[in-house]
Design goal:
single chain, mainly alpha, MetI-like fold, 84% helix, membrane
């Protein structure tokens, strides 16, 4: 194990340009997928919390998608969008919807009804209640869902190379196909570090918001 780790760090030094390139590719692919999933997921979460008849079908659909193996979902879109980054982004964004939809819906639904009734009694419109009360109060729950979704997406991005996309999965794929354990570990380790760093950043933001709410 120590020998492999030495080889891994030597690879980072000898092939720093290669690893920097695929790291940036990984961040770009996952970043775009995360932004798309966040926007669509939050919007869907708001819709199903405001229009109760849509709750069951929407949650059932995103739950069903989540049960599909990630590699199968990537393969499903190849005939539609071809191989490469585009297909990886689409599949990762769709796969990431469930945590965002569920956390947004849960965050809004767990707000004390008395708070909503008080706002209505003061003459607030539905839009004002949503924008100024529901979403701010649901922020920490939404961020918790975002945190889980981001880590999951960064990890799943590692298999995107199997459909011709870039990213850190390229190192893993090449390592597997050439029986190069050091290269496989090098790619996997960078994915883990990237996920941990992003998780730490979002966690810090989440704690800051919670602290701010307590002070207020």
């Amino acid at each position: 194990m120590i020998k492999i780790l030495k080889e891994v760090f030597q690879l980072y030094i000898d092939r720093s340009d290669f690893f920097l390139e695929i790291l940036l590719q990984h961040m770009a692919i996952c970043g775009i997928a995360i932004v798309i999933a966040s926007i669509i997921g939050i919007l869907l979460g708001i819709i199903i919390s405001e229009f109760k008849k849509t709750t069951s079908p929407v949650l059932s659909l995103v739950n069903f998608i989540y049960t599909i193996p990630s590699i199968a979902l990537l393969g499903f879109f190849i005939p539609i969008s071809g191989i490469g980054d585009k297909t990886a982004i689409i599949a990762l964004a769709i796969y990431a919807l469930l945590p965002m939809v569920r956390s947004t819906y849960t965050g809004i639904e767990t707000i004390d009804p008395a708070v909503i009734e008080s706002a209505k009694g003061m003459g607030s419109t539905d839009y004002q209640i949503l924008y100024k009360i529901k979403l701010p109060l649901a922020t920490t729950v939404i961020l918790s869902g975002l945190r889980n979704m981001v880590v999951m997406t960064i990890a799943l991005g590692g298999i995107a190379s199997f459909i011709g996309a870039g990213g850190l999965g390229v190192a893993i794929y090449r390592g597997i196909t050439t029986n190069n354990a050091a290269l496989t570990v090098a790619g996997s380790l960078l994915i883990a570090v990237l996920a941990l760093v992003v998780d730490l950043i979002i966690g810090t933001i989440e704690k800051f918001i919670k602290r701010k709410w307590k002070l207020n």
